[in-house]
Write a structure and sequence with these properties.
The structure is a single chain. With 408 residues, the protein is α+β, with helices and mostly antiparallel strands. The chain folds into 3 domains: 4-148 and 384-406, Aminopeptidase; 157-241 and 306-381, 3-Layer(aba) Sandwich (Aminopeptidase); 243-300. The chain is built from 14 helices and 15 strands. The protein has helices at 10-19, 29-36, 92-108, 127-132, 145-148, 163-169, 172-182, 196-210, 217-227, 242-269, 273-302, 337-351, 370-373, 395-406; strands at 4-6, 41-49, 59-70, 77-81, 86-87, 111-116, 137-138, 154-159, 186-191, 233-240, 307-317, 320-328, 356-361, 378-381, 386-389. Strand 3 and strand 4 form a beta hairpin. Helix 2 packs antiparallel against helix 9, helix 7 crosses helix 12 and helix 10 packs antiparallel against helix 11. The longest helix has 30 residues, at 273-302. The relative contact order is 0.16.
Amino acid sequence: MALSALSLTEREHDDFVRDHPNGHLMQTTPWGKEKEHTGWTWRTVAVGRKGAGPDGADEVTGAALILFRRTPVVPMALAYCPRGFVVDWSDAESVDALLAEVTKVAKENRGVLLRIDPAVRIDNPDIRPALESRGFTRTDPGDDAAKTLAQPALRMVTDISDLEALHKDLTQGTRQSIRKAEKSGLVYESVGRDKIPAFHELMRVTGERDGFGIRSLEYFTTLYDVLSPTDDIVISLVKLDHGAAAEAARTKVEDLRGQLEKAAAKREKYPSEKADRQVAGLEESIAKNEASAAEFAAAHEQHPDGQYLAGSVFATCGTRGSYLYAASSDEHRNLRPNYLMVWRIMQDAAAKGVTTFDFGGIDASEGLEEFKRQWNPERREYAGEFTKQLRPLSGRLIDLAVRVYKRR
């Protein structure tokens, strides 16, 4: 049976994307709705065999969400399929049919260039020949891929299908950081829309500290609104309960005093420089924890409801999870709130059937980021970004379109 264009409901489109091995959050309709807030319009297309599925339903073999961005002055637009197409790239018939339908819809919306960056590994033997044989060329990333490419090709992805095995594989330092956070009066919260302003304030602090611009509060509330109906978004916050932290510090003091008593007795019986250093170290630790207990107790008077130290936005698409945004306070970073947050998100996501945790992109010239490296990630590279010209326009207009695209 020949392939043809299909008309899918939003739910049918999203179900196909979530279930497909090449599916991605950015190819779902909620992502299109979110991008409306930043000036894009969108359309979905699908191809398949009508009536060939179970119970006479249509059999979908390929789908795509297309974002459109109009250029200023001249009547043309950029067409972009973020992490698309969603198709089996070895299925030439479906690829051809889907590309034809995407091209048709793109031209109807004044599309001049079509750009895609499939969620397919670069070592897939089908992806590059399928694209290049159909007129796509690899987008030149230039000197700074982070500024010229829409989505980084290099990713850091952790397998969370077996958390017990993952925990064993984590470095001792990472496991210690998780335990320290759990025992230091930190409280993990999975929150709703009403706490997004608290997360946004943490983003503001992080942006000022690290020197990058941040999205508006409205951007994050819109993201929550479009993804929350299908339970595909988790807003997380980690709060310091100063009262609990003071109690934890006092408990630590009592434990250290017990160790000091034993160490002092041992030194008296077997005096040595090593014994002197051990006693001095314990005395110093006791003093630090006593000071911390007093500090936390005083802070509890100022912050009786606690103080948020870290926050994040995590989204899912089928079995795939993506760490979209993360933020942290300038205070109490030694308590490791981000370690507690990531570990709890992983636990909750795995319980819902999510098997991968995508920490986001990396720049090959900069290497792996230290925090992400702590979670035993796989360095995964996607095929990259490809461009196809849809209309024979002059080089000047094409160049203008590309510059607008990069400023989105």
